Structure prediction request, 211 residues.
Amino acid sequence: MHHPRRVKNLDEVIGDIEVRLDEKDEVRELAIKSSRTIARLAGSGIQGMHRGDDVSAAIRDAREEVMKLKSLLDGHPDLFHAGFVENAMQEACEAFLVHAILEGHELPTPKGCGVTDTAYLLGLGDVVGELRRVALEHLRSGDIDRASAFLERMERILDALMRFDYPTALVALKRKQDVARSLIEKTRGEVAVAAGNHELAKKLDAMRGKL
Prediction:
């Protein structure tokens, strides 16, 4: 007769679960650290781009860290799709895409970036804000043509993002679309004002020349 308080192989089952969760906890801690490194590298890379620095080393390091994180999380899909990892991948994508655009290169693919389609699209949405910063820098220096060129790139990205009309549970893109649309409208107005002022200045100069 079995002992009434004994549950067969309970200790073995619980022990196995404990081992697996201990391993996952260790992987999670490493993933958090790696995600912070990726966010730092991506952020410093973008800031360097706006200063006109050579950020190829930071971009390379960020890409390598993304691949290391992806390898670390192989076999842990729940962690790979966790919010802190997805956010880091999104920031990395933003840096990779902005760098490619500013350098005139082809855009890297999600696979090339080592990220999910969702992280890629969310990162692409944030690129619009960075291109606005570039457009405004050109406006401040009086280069309206260059500012207009970056406005066109912003509009092209929004057109691409608007092709995705999926539920938020699948890809939370609506807020990115709304923010991008708002930034484009503001930038379009600022470019138009600058262009109008430029034309007015040219006419005034021409009138002075006739006096």
